[in-house]
Amino acid sequence: MNSTWLITLAGPDCPDLLQQFCETIALGEGLIQDRQLAAMEGRISGLLKLQLPGTHASWIWQRLEIFSTRGLHIITRQRIEPTAPGGRQLSLAVRGQFRLGLDHEIRQILESHGALIEQYNQHCVGAPLLGEQGFHARIQARLTRELSTEHLTRALNHLARGLEFDLNTENLHRA
Prior knowledge:
By secondary structure, this protein is α+β, with helices and mostly antiparallel strands. The protein has 4 helices and 8 strands.
């Protein structure tokens, strides 16, 4: 069974070290579901949401702790208990022109409308050297309150000209 964790990190601003940290999670078949990192004066701090398979979780934690010898410390780790089944689910597909920060703004809008993001997959397509770079994202979220699709669509439309959205909500059945 998979478990979901929130961890906070602090250490040197070293992209290679952070990449090795993330690769360690992937080697154990873990998944980084979300991350928020900040860099300041040669240091980073951040919050990561991880999904770890039960069969490899202890192996992953042991390997991640080794990074503290290189200065990258796991400050806190907290297991997130799964939410009860049922409620409403939102699925959103977004297409349009890529720009830096667009994914973060989409997350903020969804969260402000009561959507707890469970899955966020994105990729860029096109020819970046020619200035042609498209953005595609698929998002799954659990709604924590009643959603006004009109207000959500209006907020998303203010992000950038030409974005296309496919928004669906559905009731989830209790098991």
